[in-house]
Specification:
The complex is a heterodimer of chains A (91) and B (544). Chain A is an alpha+beta fold and 91 residues long. Chain A has a domain of 63 residues. In chain A, 20% of the residues lie in helices and 25% in strands. A 5-stranded antiparallel β-sheet of chain A has the order 3-2-1-4-5, sandwiched between helices. Chain B has 4 domains: 104 residues, Sulfite Reductase Hemoprotein, domain 2, CATH 3.90.480; 164 residues, Sulfite Reductase Hemoprotein, domain 1, CATH 3.30.413; 83 residues, 2-Layer Sandwich (Alpha-Beta Plaits); 135 residues, Sulfite Reductase Hemoprotein, domain 1 (2-Layer Sandwich). Chain B is 36% helix and 18% strand. In chain B, the strands form 4 sheets. In chain B, strands 1-2-5-4-13 form a 5-stranded antiparallel β-sheet. In chain B, helix 3 packs antiparallel against helix 11 and helix 13 packs across helix 15. The longest helix of chain B has 22 residues. Chain B is globular, with a radius of gyration of 23 Å. Classes of the chains: A alpha+beta (91), B alpha+beta (544).
Amino acid sequence: MKLLTGNELESGLVIWWTGDGWSHQVEDAADVGEGGEAILAAEEGARRVNAAYLVEAEDGLPIHIKERVRAAGPTVRADLAINPAITVEKG
Amino acid sequence: MYKYDNYDQQMVDDRVAEFKNQVQRRLAGEITEDQFKPLRLMNGLYLQLHAYMLRVAIPYGTLNSEQMKMLGHIARKYDRGYGHFTTRQNIQYNWINLEQCPDLLDDLASVEMHAIQTSGNCIRNISSDQYAGAAADEIADPRPWAELLRQWSSFHPEFAYLPRKFKIAVIAAPEDRAAMRLHDIGIELVEQNGELGARVFVGGGMGRTPMIAPQINPFVKADDLLSYVEACLRVYNRYGRRDNKYKARIKILIHEMGADEYRDQVEAEFAHVKTLGIDPPRAELERITEFFAPPAFSSDAEADLDRSDPDFAVWIDQNVKAHKQDGYAIVNISLKPVDGIPGDASADQIDAMADIALKYSFDELRVTHAQNIVLPHVAKRDLHAVWRALRDAKLADANLDLISDIIACPGLDYCSLANARSIPVAQKIAKRFESLERQRDLGELKLKISGCINACGHHHAGHIGILGVDRKGVENYQLTFGGSGAEDVSIGKIIGPGFDEDGVVDAVEKATDVYKALREDGERFLDTYRRVGVEPFKEAIYAK
């Protein structure tokens, strides 16, 4: 499973491709399969996302810890968490 | 403190206007991110893990209350109510909106501050001794020289695109409180036969290849210093590698060229540079120096301290240092509370520190490379009032230089370069050693944590250093022992296989147990380690 992520141009906040738009919540993210590069190019061209890239995921969550922290928010500031339910450590 | 002249202010204002236009063009789609990225980085704006991060320059870590207030205002208005003081004596904001950034920079410029040259392959913020102008052991005030270097390096056209970033520190005391020899250029002001000059060290640094700067010149006359530093940079700019980012720092050049050859090259270049008239006329240096004249110290500032409150007494013993002026003291404000984030301060705390400095420290504050704040000139009669005000703001932790006074980079919680989290490890160690009595029994123990090999958390210079690495997608922490950023500078050595987060906390505790068992009178952890070597520590830490 592959997710498309990047940052909002104006705010810089992390966003995830939902299939027809962008969300700050990784649980809204869609599996882009092999079509990610085309979406990425179109969305960056339209300035709807900045510095976008594809990440490997399973069960709807990125596999790599760095991407999980991006999805969860800083783990040391509960008040700034994007989604406190996300476990950064796998398993 | 130095005050901008019209030229300084115009330079900053012009840059803000230029960046405002660049941001508008980016938002309008007239330039791509590839085109915009180097422009925003020149203005200290990074795209980090969660959002844009702005790094604001604090020249040689010195601030007045108005500037500190502005940092609080920015935290409140443009960020999420806090800022992070860094090992470069700067401050970073983690949640900056691109569209608002030019307004933020306008606000900064209104108090003679900016974010220029806080990124990119240029000469970065000049760092210095946080006790400058107050330390009993300094032979001169390093700040006029740091300011001179700031002016010289700001928008220096020849050094805007160096092979790699470049960091300079200036100190003027035998005790090195600025990790001077771990800079690209370290300058120590010294006197020789009654004449002021500088020992110049070049080619130090941390990162993936830590090196201690060798001495390149034992005495450069003060009148020649700027020309000499220019020559040092020119040789680097000419021969430094641009083909490989990881070999581009000056430390690699000097290591490969050899210090003797580099010194010869610098001498030859210096002979030429000296003919160019770069060194300022004495009147200009005196003009700058006047900004750093001692404040109007009072003759009745002395006081018999009432130590009946044990918390106050401990704070005095741990966080307050001797001042060169009778009746005054240097106050260190720890930004390392247990459960806190090293270097972070809320907007309200930043305001409180500004208010206290205005009332009690001649309107001056300093940021330290250990991510703490200093009130440099506090009358002893005011110490109790300062302590109470700090306590009210939750800023009176009495742990300076103890095991919980941890330097930690933002790590994987904020940084896109990091491989592992630093802050949670710092918090767990601080919690484990929460008892101040236990910490004070361990004495000076500088523990530093980096979340990747770039070493922003100065782990190489930690008596105990912790380096977070990515081991097959899992955070892992290597321990190093024996580093120091002080005058007894050394690079820590990895002691063995790494640990998980809880394991590294246990290992640190075992190391302190070994130290307690083996220490001799007056020995710090570092001294005992240097005397007995790593083996007793390894035996305890890796025992099955």
